Each structure stands twice: as C-alpha cells, then as structure tokens.
Amino acid sequence: MAELNTGGGGGGGKHGKKRAKKLSTRVDMTPMVDLAFLLLTFFVLTATFNKPKVMELNFPFDKETPDEPISEVRNGLTIIATGKDKIYYYSGSLGKTEKLEATDYTANGLRKLLVDRNRDVVEQIRALGQKAQKTNMADSTFKREMVKIQSIPDALVVLIKNDDKATYKNIIDIVDELNITKVGRFVVVDELDPKEKVMLADATKLNP
Q1: At residue 76, what are phi and psi to the nearest 5 degrees?
Q2: Are 201 and 161 part of one and the same domain?
Q3: What is the pLDDT of residues 6-23, one digit of tens each?
Q4: Which of 18, 25, 50, 105 gets the most CB atoms within 10 Å of its CB?
C-alpha cells in the first residue's frame, strides 16, 4: 500500500513565507530649508525699510556784501514766530513795512496765506501731478519737474525768523506748512532786525 506524503510541497510550512521589513518613517527637511531661505531672501530684497525722517533747512550764506538782500526779492514773505504759538508776518521789503500782521497755524491761517501767495506754483504742481498719474511718470522725473516749477521767478520766497520766546516746534510747524503748500524757496534767519523787534513788541501788545 502506498504511503501518503503529508509533508507539503517545497517552501511550505512555518518558515516558508518571508515578511517585508518595516521601514522607519523619515521626512527629508532639506527642501523645506531651501524654501525658507528663498522666501527670506525674497522678503529682504523686496521689503521697504523705514527711511530716517529728516527736515531740510536752508540757511543764508554768510556774505559781507550780499548781491541782493533776501528781504528785497520779488514776492517775498517774512514770517516771525514768537511765544504762545503766535506768528506774525509782513510782505515785501522791511523798509516799506510799518506793522506786522497776525495769523495762526490753522488751515485757515498760515496755510491759506501761503496758498494765496503761492497760488501759481500750487496750480502748476497740481497739473503736473495729474499728468504724472496719466503718464506713469517716474518719481525722480516728477520731483525734478516740481523743483523747476518752485524756482520760477514768481514763486514765493519765505524768510522764517523767531525771537527768544519761540520753540523748535514752532519752526518745524512753519516748515511743515511750507512743504504742504509747495513753497520750495525758504530760508531760516536766526536774528531779528531792530525794526522787526520794535514791530513785534507792538504787535504782541495788541494781541496779548
């Protein structure tokens, strides 16, 4: 009688199957680091950093015999700052001036005065701004053209003076108004004329 073979075929049994090895999960961070550096470089190159805030002040040359007194120029305006946030002004030559006019730092005060006296320049700069928007004019070109307009013969020329009662804030406020009203020619003078001192004393008595 034939003997029955129950051992199974080759490769069978407990040790017949090979199990797959379990690989550990590992994320390669190299691409992410590269991306982070690319983004950092992009933002650094395209970011706009804060520029230092400075104010340009023009002082007259120290000349023993000036070619032309600043107060004698055409369309000249002298602004005198004093204490209690009060400001006075006069137009034209000091020799032809008898008294000071009073104004203030509001939009209907000094700003309105400057706009009225410098209206031609203000209108030309406004027209230049509209042209710049339509033609996508470069900022450097716009600024260059604006300086040309501010230097025309009829442009307003402002002298800024103060007594010992005025503060730095008063001078800064005046310069801010000049920049707002597009006055390109102004000079800070650190000394009052004797006649101006007398007129300022009289004006402050009338406006204590």
Answers
A1: -90, 145
A2: yes
A3: 555 555 555 556 666 666
A4: 105
